[in-house]
Amino acid sequence: MRPPLLPRLLVPRLPFFYGWVVLGCICLAGFARQGPAVAVLSVFVVPMTDAFGWSRTEMSGAVSLGGVLAAFIAPLLGPVLDRRGARLILCLAVLGTGFATMALSLTQSLLVFYLLFCFARMVWAGPFDLGLYGALNNWFVARRALATSIATLAQMSGLVALPIIAQLAMRGGDWRDGYEFEAFAKAGIRGRKEFEELFPGIGLPASLPEAHQLELRSSKLDGRNTGAGGTTAVTANSASQRPTTLPTRPA
Fold first, then answer.
1. Which of 196, 201, 175, 164 minimizes the C-alpha distance to 106?
2. 194 neighbors 102 (Cβ within 8 angstroms)
3. Does 1 reside within a domain?
4. Counting runs of H as helices and runs of E as strands, what totals does the chain give?
5. What is the CATH number of the domain that holds 138?
6. Does 238 reside within a domain?
7. Of 66, 123, 220, 251, which one is least surrounded by beta carbons within 10 A?
């Protein structure tokens, strides 16, 4: 499989490790993924129950069902991630969640709400987790803990920011405007003009630069040399930091 064009152009020209570019894209995608989170749904509970007369129990059932569906599809996506890489999974996840969120703004019945929100919740809990951390683990070894903490911070930032942004989007209209804006923030799907000028879509562009081929990576993968056959060998510097034997306890 031929590597994507953008990584082929960037890897030999960047003065720093290309994995940091991938981490930046992971952070943007992780920020934008939080639309189907419970914290964001809670902003829509009151206006939607007032509009349709649904109970909160009926709405919360979609959250649980979406999580169950994610548990079933996650084992099926693992082999796809190994063969095709995280780029494909993240692109499909961003687009799928974006269109499902946009369609939620057109919801007229509880059945349609369940179909759309369960799909978005399933993607949130399954493909997004696999794609984000699969890409991160492919590019970081020695600094994997640092990279994981940065990616998690970006996701938690989205969990804090998106409910506030959705609430602000509903101030000039109703709950449908909030879902329209969330869809634009995820996948660049066109929403209201004033929101597009303030917040450009960040989800889909963030999922594009990741490359799966090991040949695109530098001779050192995050501080560790790549050996024959794509395996990684610990450098002398990193190996020297790990004791080979446990210290003996004094008598």
1. 175
2. no
3. no
4. 12, 3
5. 1.20.1250.20
6. no
7. 251
Closest to 61 in 3D by CA, of 108, 114, 6: 114
Query: What range does the domain containing 153 cover?
Result: 16-216
Give the whole-angstrom CA distance, residue 175 versus residue 102: 12
Find the angle CA(98)-CA(145)-CA(87) to the nearest 5 degrees: 35
Per-residue model confidence as pLDDT tens digits over 48-69: 898 899 988 889 899 999 999 9
How far is residue 113's CA from residue 54's CA, in Å, rounded to a whole number?
A: 11
Distance CA 87, CA 191 (A): 25
Which residue positions in the chain have pLDDT lower than 70?
1-4, 7, 185-251
Domain assignment present for 239 = no
* 198-237 confidence digits (pLDDT tens): 334 444 444 445 544 443 444 456 655 444 344 343 333 3
Query: What amino acid is encoded at 200 in this protein?
Result: P
- Please report whether residue 78 resides in a domain: yes
Token couple for 210: 């990741």
